């Protein structure tokens, strides 16, 4: 699995569109079809790993997965009916839900794991801990810090180089709500990207850089970058699971189109996906698996949705 997830993360900087498919003419007879997916860059590695396992058993199914950001996936693909599933690092907004319903789609929510948004710096950066108040000072839209030592006099006398997700990202929405107290409230003068490995490379290359993204990208690259403690707590799977890494631990989701459930390939894939959410596959990618009761609740909800929409 380590080699598999390393391949996944290495591909992301070059491609925001990753396609699993089998075009072999001698593919085994069986389930066939397409399962189109877009959305969160945070959930992307999980979906790619699950898709790879699914295709081993169902080589006649194609599963294109786009990393577009949660909001970008909803707006450009899921709500117009272009995808069956939207990866999401935040819950769907009321307006997005209503727009989907207007198109005859009921978005079905399934939690697939727990993430911890991780604040990362260069390995040589002398800073090891940051508070929520200091993060707010750096990222607030009004009079933000321009230098490290404006936040703490003991920190370097150097200009802050900031990297993070764009406003299309659910990670951006969640981070701004928890740090600034208001969703989408952020300074605009930072390097925005939906490719989290771009943040990895930028932080790796500059001692003045600071960025944030889902924990899996840190765990995959921890030999090159450093994670800051937040309010004295080191981000990690156990801290996220126990709820001690606050306020940046969060649930992550997939949203399934009720209309797409009519397709056998989508039904089979979603069921398989939900069966993986309590397994080591989620942990190996870099997130916290669901406890048994939450996994059972997912399966119950899925079974009811299949009866209702197919």
Q: What would CATH call the architecture of the largest domain?
A: 3-Layer(aba) Sandwich
CATH topology of the largest domain: D-Maltodextrin-Binding Protein, domain 2
**Strand order across the largest sheet:** 10-9-11-7-12
Instruction: Please state the CA-atom Rg, rounded to the nearest Å.
Output: 20 Å
List the helices and strands and how they pair.
Elements: H1 2-11, E1 17-20, E2 33-34, E3 37-39, H2 44-57, E4 61-66, H3 70-78, E5 85-88, H4 94-102, E6 107-116, E7 118-122, E8 129-130, H5 132-139, H6 148-151, E9 161-164, H7 170-180, E10 191-192, H8 196-204, E11 209-213, H9 215-220, E12 225-227, E13 229-230, H10 237-242, E14 249-257, H11 264-276, H12 280-285, H13 292-309
Parallel strand pairs: 2-4, 3-5, 8-13, 9-10, 9-11
Antiparallel strand pairs: 1-4, 5-14, 6-14, 7-11, 7-12
Helix pairs in contact: 2-11, 11-13
Q: Can you walk me through this structure?
A:
The chain has 310 residues and is an alpha/beta fold. It has two domains: 2-114 and 252-309, Periplasmic binding protein-like II (D-Maltodextrin-Binding Protein, domain 2), CATH 3.40.190; 116-249, Periplasmic binding protein-like II (D-Maltodextrin-Binding Protein, domain 2), CATH 3.40.190.10. It contains 13 helices and 14 strands. A five-stranded mixed β-sheet has the order 10-9-11-7-12. A four-stranded mixed β-sheet has the order 3-5-14-6, with helices on both faces. It has a three-stranded mixed β-sheet with strand order 1-4-2, with helices on one face. The longest helix has 18 residues, at 292-309. The two termini are 34 Å apart. Mean pLDDT is 92; it is low at 1-28.
